[in-house]
Amino acid sequence: MKKEVVPVHIRGILPASSGAAIFLGNDQKVFVIQVENSMATIIGMFLRGQPKERPLTHDLIANIFKGLDVTVERVVVTDLKESTYFARLILKQQNELGTKLVELDARPSDCLAIATCQKVPIYVSAALFEAVEDMSELFEKINQGASEETGE
User: Fold this and answer.
1) C-alpha distances out from residue 12 to 32, 63, 70, 96, Å
2) Taken in order 2, 121, 84, 25, is the CA torsion positive or negative?
3) Would you say 71 and 91 are in contact if contact means Cβ atoms under 8 Å apart?
């Protein structure tokens, strides 16, 4: 039986002509999601654990979730339609009445920012992961070029 989702992580963030390219993937495959420069900067800050002078929007969202006893369970990049990716934010709330899971439609860039802020898993639907173009070779070439430039 095939898994419904595939675990991935952010492999890298690079500037692109129309914003930034977020390389998502695992040992099998890497693919690219284009995001705005500001979102790439935010995601990069969360990945590096970089301190911020003031809370960013995704920090505010995290604080609201905490105040409401809501946890982010995971994010899932679900689909690609007409060059636009779609994603879902999976939230969990527990209280005296029980446990409630809520699934929200959200931009992949926001989902990735929240996932990196909250340090929660990132998944891609298995069907989408199968369908996207494998950019592993390009990603490796870019990394090798960067290593050569820095002498690492």
Assistant:
1) 10, 27, 29, 41
2) negative
3) yes
Both structure tokens of 92: 């969990």
Other Cβ atoms within 10 Å of 92 Cβ, number: 15
Mean pLDDT score, 98-109: 95
Chain segment 113-130, per-residue pLDDT in tens = 999 999 999 999 999 999
Rounded CA gap, 39 and 111, in Å?
11
Domains and CATH numbers, the chain: 5-150 (3.10.690.10)
Render 70-128 in DSSP notation, one character per residue: EEEEEEEEEEEETTEEEEEEEEEEEETTEEEEEEEEE-HHHHHHHHHHHT--EEEEHHH
Give the chain's length. Answer: 152
Name the 3-class secondary structure at 130.
Answer: helix
Backbone angles phi, psi at 98, to 5 degrees: 130, -160
Q: Can you spell out the DSSP letters for 10-58?
A: EEEEEEETTEEEEEEE-SS-EEEEEE-HHHHHHHHHHHHT---SS--HH
